[in-house]
Write a structure and sequence with these properties.
Elements (H helix, E strand, L loop, with lengths): L4 H7 L4 H23 L2 H7 L5 H22 L6 H25 L6 H30 L3 H28 L4 H5 L5 H14 L4 H12 L6 H6 L14 H20 L8 H7 L9 H7 L1 H15 L4 H5 L9 H17 L13 H10 L3 H11 L2 H25 L6 H26 L9
Helix pairs in contact: 2-6, 2-7, 2-9, 4-6, 4-21, 5-6, 5-9, 6-7, 6-21, 7-17, 7-20, 10-12, 15-18, 15-20, 15-21, 17-20, 19-20
């Protein structure tokens, strides 16, 4: 079967900027609901002053996120990625709506009953995050690194946007508890994510290109997404084609294989001969082998979030003392963290500033633990300016190192391996989040609780 190589090379870039923007929006939607809950911490502290809501809600959220991510990462090779991600975004929407309904139904009153209800919603957010974050990072890992960067930037942007909305609503309704509740309404943004992922993203040429490539390398996780784009899967991977898409997909797959064969000065002309000449084409490393080869990246991403979550948001919300900003102080600190976390995720786009050395990444990750004594002494003896500066650097380094690790680790692997590695790294990321949240309680030692 003949075709113009240049046409398929062009597909590798067609729709790239649209895909980058949608990846950013999907990343935003992955944490928008949860960040909306975090950024109204002053409201929940007002409603539930005895229950340490900032710490408890995060501690409830993380185990559900960790267990869900770990289970799905273990079964990654057999998981329908499309169904997984859609289920996560739909659960985000339903849970966000439930949070608003609960708040309105109880008329903004505190007590153990409403607090348990909020904790249940927090657990649902964690379950949704376990579906979406690992699924999306794994899916985007088999595409180009810029998609991962854009998705991770969207995660940070969700915190920045919700912080900005929270500051605006607090300024407009500071004397009204009803006004405080307005800061929690984020449910309908999740509907946009459901629509984009279900109907727009899979039909972009560049997305079809990379998913067809992954299918040619033996990936089963992309089958439903290819079908949504009018392409089913390879016969030898459990994947048949609809009539119009059959030739289209076969051509793409042969192109990928020919591209690889050119490096070895070998030529192929049809799908069956490719399979016969390269019987190892569909083989992939096991999760255990991938983890062994990338254990330093896994440790990096784990330690990055152990450190970050041992300080943010619990310590910043409850242990920074009393200052001139009053109830605005914690909101300003959280907003500054979110803004600089977002900025940090764009810094690696400047190639000369991107850290790719594996030893360098480990050294930078370990150096961040100096933040613990720095925050401790600043909270005791420093002023507001020093605390804001430290919080900004915490956010900047968190975003920067996260993108460096997640974009560099999948390089050089086949599509199915990149998907698996993305899932494994997110599992370590969320394990770090959970560990950091647990360690955050150590700040309360000697404070009577």
């Amino acid at each position: 079967m003949s075709f113009q190589t240049a046409n398929w090379q062009a597909m590798e870039k067609q729709g790239k900027f649209t895909a980058l923007f949608i990846s950013w929006l999907l990343g935003n939607g992955s944490l928008f609901s949860w960040n909306s809950m975090l950024t109204i911490e002053d409201y929940y502290t007002h409603l539930f002053p005895k229950y340490h809501p900032t710490r408890v809600l995060t501690l409830v959220y993380q185990p559900f996120a960790l267990v869900t991510t770990a289970v799905l990462a273990y079964h990654e090779a057999k998981t329908n990625t499309r169904l997984r991600n859609l289920a996560g975004y739909i659960l985000f929407f339903v849970s966000s709506l439930a949070l608003v309904v609960l708040d309105v139904a109880t008329s903004g009153k505190g007590g153990i009953g409403p607090f348990i209800g909020v904790c249940i919603v927090s657990a649902a957010f964690g379950t949704a995050d376990g579906h979406v974050q690992g699924g999306m990072v794994g899916d985007l890992s088999l595409m180009c690194p810029e998609f991962i960067q854009s998705f991770m930037a969207g995660l940070a942007a969700s915190g920045t946007l919700t912080s900005a909305l929270r500051l605006i609503t607090k300024a407009a309704f500071d004397s009204s508890q009803d006004g405080l509740r307005k800061g929690a309404m984020s449910a309908f943004f999740e509907l946009l994510c459901v629509f984009l992922y279900a109907f727009v993203f899979p039909k972009l040429p560049i997305v079809k290109y990379y998913r067809a490539k992954a299918a040619s390398e033996g990936s089963r996780t992309v089958a439903a997404d290819l079908a949504a784009a009018g392409i089913e899967a390879l016969p030898d991977t459990g994947v048949s084609f609809s009539s119009a898409a059959h030739i289209y997909a076969i051509i793409i797959i042969i192109y990928f294989c020919k591209k690889k064969k050119k490096k070895k000065t070998r030529k192929t002309h049809d799908l069956m001969s490719i399979t016969e000449e390269d019987p190892k084409r569909l083989e992939r490393l096991s999760n255990k082998q991938l983890l062994a080869q990338n254990i330093d990246y896994a440790i990096d991403i784990y330690l990055i979030y152990v450190l970050t979550l041992s300080i943010f948001p619990g310590f910043l919300s409850e242990d920074t003392g009393s200052h001139n900003l009053g109830s605005w102080y914690a909101l300003v600190l959280i907003a500054m963290y979110n803004v600089w976390d977002l900025i940090g995720r764009y810094v690696p786009l400047i190639k000369c500033l991107k850290l790719t050395s594996r030893k360098g990444l480990m050294a930078a990750t370990l150096a961040r633990f100096l933040f613990i004594p720095a925050f401790y002494f600043t909270s005791k003896y420093g002023g507001e300016g020093w605390m804001i500066m430290l919080t900004s650097v915490l956010g900047l380094t968190n975003g920067y190192l996260t993108v460096c690790v997640l974009t560099d680790a999948p390089t050089g692997y086949k599509g199915p391996e990149q998907n698996a590695l993305g899932n494994l790294l997110v599992a370590f990321l969320i394990a770090g989040l959970f560990s950091g949240v647990a360690l955050d309680w150590l700040w309360l030692i000697g404070k009577g609780w």
